[in-house]
């Protein structure tokens, strides 16, 4: 049965053929019971090294929230890039593997008191903010620290928008930079996020136009900025092709070169683009049923223990171990909660109960979202 995976050209356009073959070989030679997440080490290294190559003075900080597995973090640490963190838990795991505080930044504009105290004690000195309240917290817990304000930018074309919870408009951002300086902080720059899984290359154009406006306003107000944090957002392939890292960065690099001072430090916070398409979930079919005119297929990973992003609209590609007959399915997870539906009206070959289903591009925002709801364990992550 392990040799009956139906791998098509569409699959190898979504995930590298070498990654798929490694996964199939692992399944063939392993007795580990699914579900589990396989991460291709070579693919992670390749993607991490690709980011920042076309942007002058760039510094890369992996967004730990994308996949905080310790072995994944050890691999990324060995590459030598930095880390973006948002909690004492993320800080603790990085400290446990020997990451120094000068390789960490935190771009969450609203930080818990415990995290702020812990981060300052550890030596973290770069913090985002977008409100007067956060400035007061930073003045109390991190006086004199380096701070950067978050501005709102368009998120059209992003499959996971991030523009509603954080950020302020340019006029307010200018006020906050001035306020931060008066409160004894060191305002060094700004940050924005075009949205996770951004498939619209022009979002960066609009964002950098707003950033340039703020940069000029700050200079007129007597604040000399040096840092431009462009966040993350680089997309990966899930079910279709997307604009590549190189094309995005050549566009960004030219815009920054044209608009900002030559020595501007450019911080990049990739997460999904580093680990997303390096991951393949290995799952098994645990049930099939006909309900009215719908065919239901149940697997041992669902919304609660690994595929939460499917609720927000992320759709995956699947490699099925089974027959050639294509059927329309409602794909569901293992829990007894009716919310645990991964996708409806999906066309897949019919697998046998007990057969494998591989979920491509599942390395990011899967395990990190997972819970043990209903007693189902969080799948183990295995590097290959």
Helix and strand topology:
Layout: H1 9-14, H2 17-29, E1 36-39, H3 41-50, E2 58-63, H4 70-79, E3 82-84, H5 88-96, E4 104-105, H6 113-122, E5 126-129, H7 132-141, E6 146-150, E7 158-160, H8 170-182, E8 186-191, E9 196-198, H9 202-220, E10 227-229, H10 245-259, E11 265-268, H11 272-275, E12 279-291, E13 294-299, E14 318-320, E15 322-332, E16 341-351, E17 356-359, E18 380-383
Parallel strand pairs: 1-18, 2-3, 2-11, 3-4, 5-6, 6-8, 8-10, 10-11, 13-15
Antiparallel strand pairs: 1-12, 7-9, 12-13, 12-17, 14-17, 15-16
In short:
The protein is an alpha/beta fold and 384 residues long. The chain is built from eleven helices and 18 strands.
């Amino acid at each position: 049965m392990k040799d009956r995976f139906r791998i098509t050209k569409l699959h190898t356009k979504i995930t590298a053929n070498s990654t798929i073959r490694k996964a199939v070989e692992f399944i063939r030679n392993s007795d580990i019971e699914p579900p589990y997440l396989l991460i291709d080490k070579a693919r992670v290294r390749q993607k991490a090294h690709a980011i920042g190559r076309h942007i002058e003075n760039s510094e890369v900080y992996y967004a730990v929230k994308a996949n905080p597995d310790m072995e994944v973090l050890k691999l990324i640490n060995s590459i030598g890039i930095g880390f973006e963190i948002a909690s004492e838990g993320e800080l603790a795991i990085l400290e446990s593997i020997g990451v120094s505080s000068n390789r960490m930044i935190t771009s969450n504009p609203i930080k818990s008191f415990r995290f702020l105290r812990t981060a300052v004690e550890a030596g973290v000195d770069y913090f985002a903010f977008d409100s007067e309240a956060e400035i007061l917290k930073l003045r109390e817990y991190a006086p004199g620290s380096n701070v950067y304000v978050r501005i709102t930018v368009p998120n059209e074309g992003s499959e996971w928008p991030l523009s509603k919870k954080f950020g302020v408009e340019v006029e307010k951002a200018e006020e906050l930079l001035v306020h931060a300086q008066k409160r004894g902080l060191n305002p060094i720059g700004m940050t924005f996020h075009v949205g996770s899984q951004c498939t619209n290359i022009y979002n960066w154009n609009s964002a950098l136009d707003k950033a340039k406006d703020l940069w000029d306003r700050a200079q007129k107000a007597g604040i000399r900025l040096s840092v431009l944090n462009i966040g993350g957002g680089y997309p990966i392939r899930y079910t279709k092709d997307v604009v590549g890292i190189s094309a995005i960065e050549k566009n960004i690099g030219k815009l920054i070169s044209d608009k900002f001072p030559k020595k501007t430090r450019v911080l990049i916070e990739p997460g999904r683009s580093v680990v997303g398409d390096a991951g393949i979930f290995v799952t098994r079919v645990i049930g099939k049923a006909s309900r009215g005119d719908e065919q239901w297929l149940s697997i041992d990973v669902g919304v609660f223990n690994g595929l939460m992003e499917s609720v927000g609209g992320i759709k995956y590609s699947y490699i099925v171990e089974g027959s050639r007959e294509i059927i329309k399915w409602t794909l569901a997870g293992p829990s007894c909660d009716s919310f645990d539906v991964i996708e409806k009206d999906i066309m897949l070959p019919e697998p046998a109960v007990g057969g494998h289903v591989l979920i491509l591009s599942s390395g990011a925002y899967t395990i990190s979202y997972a819970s043990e709801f209903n007693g189902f364990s969080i799948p183990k992550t295995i590097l290959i």
